[in-house]
Amino acid sequence: MLLRRFVVAGAALASLLGACSQPAPEAAAPSEGLTGDASEDLPSWFIDRVELPSCGRLDADEYEDWELRARGIDCIATAYDEGREAELAMQQLTDEGAPIERIYRVLDGRLDIMYDTRQDPLGSEAIGWISCAEATFLSYRPVGSDCAVIEGPPDAVAGRD
Question: CA-CA distances (angstroms) from residue 84 to 43, 51, 89?
Answer without folding.
Answer: 26, 13, 17
